[in-house]
Amino acid sequence: MTMPNLAFIFPGQGAQSVGMMAELASEYPIVKETFAQASAVLGYDLWSLSQNDETGQINMTEITQPLLLTASVAAWRVWSSITKARPAFLSGHSLGEWSALVCAGVVSFEDAVNLVRLRGKYMQEAVPAGVGAMAAVIGLDDESVMKACETAAEDQFVAPVNYNAPGQVVIAGHKEAVDRAIVACKASGAKKAMPLAVSAPFHTVLMKPAATKLAEEIKQVTFNSPEIPVIHNVSAAQESDPESIKNLMIQQIYLPVRWVDCVKALSASGVQQAVECGPGKVLSGMIKRIDKSIQCFQSETPDAISEAVEAVNA
Question: Which residues are catalytic?
Answer without folding.
Answer: 94, 203
